[in-house]
Structures are given as structure tokens and as C-alpha cells.
UniProtKB/TrEMBL annotation:
Lineage: Bacteria, Pseudomonadati, Pseudomonadota, Alphaproteobacteria, Rhodobacterales
Keywords, alphabetical: ATP-binding, Nucleotide-binding
Family: Belongs to the CbbQ/NirQ/NorQ/GpvN family.
Record Gene3D superfamilies: P-loop containing nucleotide triphosphate hydrolases
Span of domain CbbQ/NirQ/NorQ C-terminal: 179-262
Keyword Cytoplasm: no
Organism per entry: Cereibacter ovatus
Name of this protein: Nitric oxide reductase NorQ protein
A GO molecular-function descriptor: ATP binding
UniProt-listed InterPro entries: ATPase_dyneun-rel_AAA, CbbQ/NirQ/NorQ/GpvN, CbbQ_C, P-loop_NTPase
Residue span, ATPase dynein-related AAA domain: 32-166
Amino acid sequence: MNAIVRDATVPFYKPVGNECALFEAASAKGLPLLLKGPTGCGKTRFVEHMAARMGRKLYTVACHDDLSAADLIGRYLLKGGATEWVDGPLTRAVREGAICYLDEVVEARKDVTVVLHPLTDNRRTLMIDRTGEELVAPPGFMLVASYNPGYQNILKRLKPSTRQRFLSIGFTFPDPVTETAVVARESGLSEARVAPLVRLAGHVRALSGMDLEEGVSTRLLVYAASLMAGGMSVEQALEAAVIEPLTDEPDVAQALRDLIATVYG
Ligand SMILES: Nc1ncnc2c1ncn2[C@@H]1O[C@H](COP(=O)(O)OP(=O)(O)OP(=O)(O)O)[C@@H](O)[C@H]1O
Ligand SMILES: [Mg+2]
């Protein structure tokens, strides 16, 4: 099963707004939380940070279009001629009062919604049809989900009845001062050399929605800065970490090179 279990040391996360306080308040009240935002803006890092800082076990499930309710809840497996029930990551998180993070939840199959509804309203109940069990989530259990509204087509939007069961936080890219600090810390490149990268990102993001599906992520800036910290030239680093990941169109790539020349010229 594609769940990653982590309870290690606290990963670095620099807050952008009041998201840490909101997470703690949601957790204290047992309310589910939805994180919305573009790729690579820090959603996963935020959840990993909060779980570790609160000393809570985290089950992360990367949702995909084949992910079914059984993948989350569990199934009977054949073991040595006998069938045995094996809990899925969601059931384990409920039993243990842990945090369950469903990454890109809209990708999952429709039957997942049916499972999430009783778990995310005041019932806080996980129905396990196959065993007849009805698990009421203990106070520690928290459901966190994320999705990227940018590239979701209309068929894949969350239904109002699902999204209105979650508290929501809209993530955007960090402000330039925060982003500079984040990229410098993550890559080891000096803030002075990260600053133009962040300026460039501002220009590139202004193009998103027009020529680009999505602006350059903080993640890609960390990649570019890491290459530069390792001694690669700015030009080569930006080609591999910004231009090529963002577009396949030669015209758009050239427009990005022109932008780079303006910022670094
Ligand atoms: N506020 C922040 N504090 C620390 N690191 C950050 C922050 N924002 C972004 N990052 C950096 O950006 C990288 C990408 O963030 P992350 O993987 O959390 O993105 P995401 O929003 O989950 O993206 P996706 O939707 O593609 O899964 C992180 O590995 C980290 O290096
Ligand atoms: Mg993520």
C-alpha cells in the first residue's frame, strides 16, 4: 500500500500566515482540514511539519484515479489458505488517533467520498462495510486533504457537500522575503543569490494562466538554487530547473529565457 508512515524529527517549515494556529485549532476540535493550492507551494511540507511538531503519527496517501475506498479502509487478504482482514491506512489512522493526509484527494474514485462523509461531519465515524464495524474516531484523529484547484477539470471538482465538511486554507506561493528565506535554507545558496531567483519567479508567475499552465513553484526554485549551490552556472541551472519543467513549447521557452536575461542582465 502506498502509505508513508513518519514520526521523525520536525521538518523545516516557515509559516506564511496563520496556518499553524489554524491547524492546531482544527486538530483540537477534531475538524477536518482541506489545503488548496498550486503544486510545490509547501502543502505537504506543512502537514509533515505540523504532525511532527505535535508529536502525532502521520499516514500520507497519494491519491490517484484508481484509488478506491478499499485501498483506504482495508480488505480481506489470503494468508496461508485463510482470509485475514488487513486495515488500510485510513482505518489505521482512525484506530490509532493519528493524522491521515489524503494528497490530491479529488483524484480518488467516487466511492472514497462515500467513506469520507460520515467521517468528516459530526458523526466522525468510519463505516467498514466488509466487517460490519463502525469506528468512531478518537479525539486525536484528524483528516487532512489537499488539492490543486488550478488544473482540476470540472468533472474532478470536489462536490459542495464534500468541501463544506472541511475547514479550508488557501495556499499561495510565499511572499518574496519568506520565499527567499525558504529557498536559501533548503538549498544552502546565499540569500543574496536567491533574491534574483525569487524576483524571476514573480515575473514567471505573472505569465501563468496565459502561456503557462501554472507558475514556477517554490520546489523548482529550491532545485535551481541547489544546482547553483553545487557550482552550476545560473543559465544551466535555470534551463534544467525552470524552463524545461515548465514548458514543451519552444516559443514559451524562449520567452522565459528573455525574462531570465532581463532579471540577470
Ligand atoms: N513555507 C515553507 N517552508 C519550508 N519549505 C517550503 C515552504 N514552502 C515550500 N517549501 C519547499 O518547497 C518544496 C515543495 O513543497 P511541498 O512538497 O510541500 O509542495 P506541495 O504543495 O505539497 O506540492 P504538490 O501539490 O505538488 O504535492 C518543499 O520540499 C520545501 O523545500
Ligand atoms: Mg504535496
